[in-house]
């Protein structure tokens, strides 16, 4: 995947946290593009199996992303079962809300262990596999919260801002054969959206929330893009980051 690709057909792409929500939409879109999708999940086995079936029988990989040894094992298993890795989408993430004065070490680690630490070690292990076959594409899902500060989510914002800077640093470290880019979704409403989320949608210039499919569009763009596009963050937020 060193040069622009006209198709993802036959490319092996791992999506973390692919059982539900945005990760599921990304996996389904990649399957429609012809990719050989590898679906990671943590605890949502029923949903992961359903997504795998909808992807035409995608391979399933379970791992606790809080554990670096489990991350390493997952990539070893992926190489054994699928032979190579062409693309990695680091989608898995956690989200909580606390007054910063009330955040404990446990609260901080709960977010950062998956949102930032796991992203790095997935990138590291993924890049090692990609280099064996000439290169690849990494797409990290960050957040509007990594671009704009939210008072009640200081720990989350720090983790997602970290993902954006990690993306930029690794784009230099892994060049020229592996690109590393980031997609920063704005408000992508699901059934559990709260009043704050609804207010953010009202403030969004295009007048609506986004869809998981629109995030998937941006992921596909980076997976197919030229090797000359790396270290970039694309906000899929209806213009909200410009307010």
Structure notes:
With 243 residues, the protein is α/β, with parallel strands linked by helices. The protein is built from seven helices and seven strands; from the N terminus they run E-H-E-H-E-H-E-H-E-H-E-H-H-E. A seven-stranded parallel sheet has the order 3-2-1-4-5-6-7, with helices on both faces. It starts with 11 loop residues before the first strand and ends in a 7-residue tail after the last strand.
Task: Describe the structure using short key phrases.
alpha/beta; 44% helix; seven-stranded parallel beta sheet; 7 strands
In terms of topology, how is this protein built?
Elements: E1 12-15, H1 21-32, E2 36-41, H2 45-54, E3 59-62, H3 68-82, E4 87-90, H4 105-132, E5 136-141, H5 154-173, E6 178-185, H6 195-203, H7 212-224, E7 233-236
Helix pairs in contact: 1-7, 3-4, 4-5
Mean pLDDT: 96
Uncertain regions: pLDDT < 50 for 5+ in a row?
none
Q: Secondary-structure element sequence?
A: EHEHEHEHEHEHHE
What is the terminal-to-terminal distance? 36 Å
Radius of gyration over C-alpha positions, nearest whole angstrom:
17 Å
Largest sheet: 7 strands, parallel
**What would you call the structural class?**
alpha/beta
Oligomer designation: single chain
Strand content range:
5-15%
Largest sheet: spatial strand order:
3-2-1-4-5-6-7
- Taken from the alpha-carbon principal axes, the silhouette is globular
Helix content: 40-55%
Q: Helical stretch count?
A: 7
Number of strands: 7
């Amino acid at each position: 995947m060193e040069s622009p690709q006209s198709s993802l057909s036959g490319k092996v792409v791992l999506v973390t946290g692919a059982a539900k929500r945005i990760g599921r939409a990304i996996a389904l879109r990649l399957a429609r593009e012809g990719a050989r999708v590898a679906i990671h999940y943590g605890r949502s086995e029923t949903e992961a199996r359903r997504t795998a079936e909808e992807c035409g029988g995608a391979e399933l990989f379970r791992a606790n992303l809080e554990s670096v040894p489990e991350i390493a094992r997952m990539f070893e298993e992926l190489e054994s079962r699928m032979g190579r890795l062409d693309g990695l989408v680091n989608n898995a993430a956690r989200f909580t809300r606390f007054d910063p004065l009330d955040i404990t070490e446990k609260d901080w680690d709960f977010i950062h262990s998956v949102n930032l630490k796991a992203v790095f070690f997935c990138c590291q292990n993924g890049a090692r596999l990609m280099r064996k076959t000439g290169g690849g594409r990494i797409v990290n899902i960050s957040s509007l919260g990594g671009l704009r500060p939210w008072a009640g989510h200081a720990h989350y914002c720090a983790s997602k801002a970290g993902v954006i800077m990690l993306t930029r640093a690794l784009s230099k470290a892994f060049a020229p054969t592996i690109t590393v880019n980031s997609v920063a979704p704005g408000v992508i409403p699901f059934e559990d959206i709260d009043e704050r989320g609804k207010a953010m949608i009202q403030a969004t210039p295009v007048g609506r929330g986004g869809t998981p499919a629109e995030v998937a569009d941006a992921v596909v763009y980076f997976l197919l893009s030229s090797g000359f596009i790396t270290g970039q963050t694309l906000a899929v937020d209806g213009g909200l980051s410009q307010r």
